[in-house]
Design goal:
Elements: H1 9-21, H2 28-44, H3 46-57, H4 61-86, E1 90-91, E2 104-109, E3 112-116, H5 124-135, E4 139-143, H6 149-163, E5 168-170, H7 175-182, E6 188-192, H8 195-208, E7 212-215, E8 221-224, H9 230-242, E9 254-258, H10 262-276, H11 293-305, E10 309-312, E11 316-317, E12 322-323, E13 326-329, H12 336-339, E14 346-352, H13 355-363, E15 370-374, H14 378-387, E16 392-395, E17 416-417, H15 422-428, E18 430-435, H16 441-445, H17 456-466, H18 474-499
Parallel strand pairs: 3-4, 3-6, 4-5, 6-7, 8-9, 8-15, 9-14, 13-14, 15-16
Antiparallel strand pairs: 1-2, 2-18, 7-17, 10-13, 11-12
Helix pairs in contact: 2-4, 2-5, 2-6, 3-4, 3-6, 4-5, 4-15, 5-15, 9-10
The chain binds nicotinamide-adenine-dinucleotide.
Length: 500
């Protein structure tokens, strides 16, 4: 992958700003056309994209197709079909005192957006902020990950072909190029990636007071109800852990299981494991690889240092970037496996006495991006939801909340802030511009009283007409409204008669 020359970066940003200021991206029909082209880009280059993802992540085609390409096109289509409604200006709620100004909210693009992308879902995570920012009428600089070189390179070739070379520009690079980008002024930065780099991005953005949206990760717990269907839980949890070899921000990170059913859950996971990989995971076409040797080494370190029992897997082949699906029972809460985001195919199972201990365990740590619960008991699910905080809450299913139509996606606290997806993403990249247009006659009718020289009588009338009030009595509120309406009608009639 050839990186973008550093000296080109300020010029690229300048050209994106100039295109934005030309007004080209503002018509909704233009935005819809670009969204349609994004859809065609993915549809018409499906095999090339699947091959690039395979080369970057060793990922099975089924996973790339169903969990990356399909959701990308679905989201683009949803955005394309709805952007005309989202972009419409909205009238403010009626209030008598301000109604003459006809207040409305204009939906305006923020300008030029910088989108920084991680390696693990390089297509979906590039198009998510891209489609939302274009739908909102912005120009975009996309910085895909150097750790997914085949997909990033392909995007750099396809984007100008389908979207033209002026409203979206791709910068290829790593730390140095991103650092250069972060020295510049942007109208919004959408960052998806690790908490470590999010701190760097936030600090750089603060220098220019740039608004930032952070889509981050963390440790996502799974809480098990001892009465739940453990076979179902085992199958879904093990699948959710092993998709993309565990390199998903919404992967289950660890399981909190009541001690009384811990052995049963482990037995079920063992059974599921042999069903998923009858020939062994290393030989299977249904299990991916780790993106880089460094990450493989990092995960190998977590396995090596564990004080828990390795029940399944544990083997690593650095050269092949292979980490076996690994189940660890009874790790210590202090070891690295339980301290940092795993982002690999290793699942610790931590025994707890009951749901209260599980909730306390979760609440003693950072708010996760998603909290999973397995239970068929609605009061159990409601209790976990009510007593915890997380970006999303999913009962009896893994990962698929991301695919649920129309839901917001994002973290809370250290797992992220803001959203870049769908309508919520459109709103992120949109400035809500409050607008009024006051007619001249309102001065004659009423507002001439605001001008000096001031007097007490004008003060009282203006405060009475424009001010709201708390009142316990419904009747007195109605009287106040009736009075105001009568006075306004009187003034209007008087001013009309004067103007004849
Ligand atoms: P990363 O933070 O290492 O890299 C993300 C981007 O930041 C890349 O484009 C990279 O070039 C750039 N970058 C890296 N180091 C930098 C530096 N020092 N200065 C400036 N820029 C730098 O993340 P990653 O390893 O690619 O992705 C994994 C992380 O992303 C995980 O923590 C995961 O949970 C998170 N993630 C979150 C979401 C979400 O939507 N919430 C989605 C996917 C991944």
């Amino acid at each position: 992958m050839q990186f973008t020359p550093l000296e080109d970066i300020p010029k690229i940003r300048e050209s994106l700003r100039n295109v934005f200021h030309s007004g080209k991206t503002k018509p909704v029909a233009f935005r819809q056309e670009k969204l349609k082209q994004m859809g065609y880009l993915v549809q018409e280059n499906k095999q090339a994209l699947l091959d690039a993802l395979k080369s970057d992540l060793g990922r099975p085609y089924l996973e790339s197709d169903v969990l990356e390409l399909v959701p990308t096109v679905n989201d683009i289509k949803y955005t394309h079909d709805n952007v005309h409604k989202w972009a419409r200006s909205e009238s403010a709620p009626f209030q008598f005192a301000s109604s003459s100004m006809r207040p409305k909210v204009m939906k305006e693009p923020k300008g030029t957006v910088l989108a920084i992308i991680p390696y693990n879902y390089p297509l979906f995570l590039s198009f998510t902020p891209l489609m939302a920012a274009i739908a909102a009428g912005n120009t975009v600089l996309l910085k895909p990950s150097e750790l997914a070189p085949a997909t990033s390179q392909l995007l750099a070739e396809l984007i100008p072909k389908y979207l033209g070379d002026d409203i979206v520009r791709v910068v290829l690079g790593a730390v140095e190029e991103t650092t250069k980008l972060l020295e510049l002024q942007w109208d919004h930065i959408a960052y998806t990636g690790s908490q470590r780099v999010a701190r760097i991005v936030s600090a750089a953005a603060a220098k220019h007071l740039i608004p930032v949206t952070l889509e981050l990760g963390g440790k996502n717990p799974v809480i098990i109800d001892p009465k739940s269907d453990l076979r179902l839980a085992a199958r879904r949890i093990w699948w959710g852990k092993l998709v993309n070899a565990g390199q998903i921000c919404v992967s289950p990170d660890y399981v909190l299981v009541p001690r009384e059913v811990q052995d049963q859950l482990i037995t079920e996971i063992n059974l599921v494991h042999s069903e998923f990989f009858p020939e062994g995971p290393a030989e299977s076409d249904s299990f991916g690889r780790i993106a880089t040797t460094n990450h493989t080494q990092r995960i190998a370190g977590l396995i090596k240092e564990t004080k828990g029992d390795i029940i399944i897997g544990g083997d690593v082949n650095l050269g092949k970037r292979y980490v076996a699906p690994t189940l660890v029972s009874n790790p210590s809460a202090e070891e690295p496996l339980m301290q940092e985001e795993i982002f690999g195919p290793v699942l610790p199972v931590v025994p707890v006495e009951n749901v209260d201990e599980a909730i306390a365990f979760v609440n003693a740590r950072q708010h996760p991006l998603v909290l999973y619960v397995f239970s068929q008991d609605s009061s159990f699910k409601a209790k976990v939801a009510a007593q915890t905080q997380s970006g999303a809450f999913a009962a009896n299913e893994l990962l698929l909340h991301v695919a649920a139509y129309g839901l917001p996606f994002g973290g809370t606290g250290p797992s992220g802030s803001g959203q870049v997806r769908g309508k919520y993403g459109f709103d992120t990249f949109t400035h809500l511009r409050g607008c009024i247009d006051q007619p001249g006659w309102i001065d004659t009718a009423l507002l001439w009283r605001r001008y000096p020289p001031y007097n007490t009588w004008n003060q009282r009338v203006l405060a009475w007409i424009t001010g709201d009030m708390f009142s316990d009595s419904k009747a007195s509120r109605w009287w106040a409204w009736a009075w105001m309406a009568a006075i306004a009608a009187g003034f209007t009639m008087w001013s009309l008669s004067m103007s004849r």
